[in-house]
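Slack export, channel: ligand-projects

TW: morning all. Re-posting the request from yesterday since it got buried. We need the structure predicted with the small molecule present, not the apo form. The ligand is glutathione; the SMILES is in the block with the sequence. No rush, but it would help planning for next week.
GE: picking it up
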Amino acid sequence: MGSSASKISETGLKHCTLWKADRSPACRAVMMALDSMNLSITEVDINMDKGEHRTQEMINLNPLQTLPVFKDRELVISDSHAICSYLASRYCDSGRLLPKDPGGRSIVDQHMHYNSSTIYPRFRAAAYPILYEHCNFVMPQQILEIECIYSDLECMLFKRTWFGGSWATLSDIVFASTISTLNILVPVDKNKYPRLSSWLYRISEELYFITANRKGLSEFSRRIDCSTSLDDTDEFKCPRSSCSRRGLQLKEPSPEATCKPVTQD
Ligand SMILES: N[C@@H](CCC(=O)N[C@@H](CS)C(=O)NCC(=O)O)C(=O)O
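GE: finished. pasting the full token output, ligand included:
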């Protein structure tokens, strides 16, 4: 972990901090939510390969020893879905990401529960043996279970452009982080899942996907390919603002980090 303080932009929330790792889809969902709302908070990079999420300081914040961890003054939240909901309801007056009407909100909640209860465990089951147990392929049973998710999502997108409403909401943001990551492990076949494939292409063109998701996706992809820890070559070693992260991503887009397998003719 770095130690120097970062410069927070004038639109920043100086009292908020996010501890995160770019390769984690749960962290990237929060980063996309932040970027979508143009919020700037202090971000601290945690190296999971070095076990930095298990230090006493981090365990005090989050006994579950997972990332992301978010702090707003005395409030600590350690689930990406809860963090996204909190940020949207506390700091986004328009209700654009999280509808204010109970019906609209319940649909977004339903998607976030599906992401948390079904998609995330299947992501872990497929990715963790490769990340941590020297396995170098996705097991057939995991492929089947991921294909079931694609099939569910394909049905959910019937006559819809976005999952949660007429525009992209938190539903789309949390699905974007997990599905773009699963797409690296089990590519979304555009012939079998045309709606899902088009949605993934559409969301991958959103500015917040570019600033908050692409770099981590590329890191995850490289980590899966070599299945050993990557060298510490990251440019970010110190806490910094979300705003400076966004600026850097826009200045230095990574060509390899695009959503390659999902293209449209
Ligand atoms: N439901 C949690 C899941 C958090 C989670 O499992 N995060 C992973 C990273 S993507 C983690 O911290 N894993 C701990 C480890 O790999 O040791 C959320 O959405 O925040």
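GE: first-pass observations. The beta strands are 12-20, 40-45, 69-72, 75-77, 240-241. The radius of gyration is 18 Å.
TW: perfect, thank you
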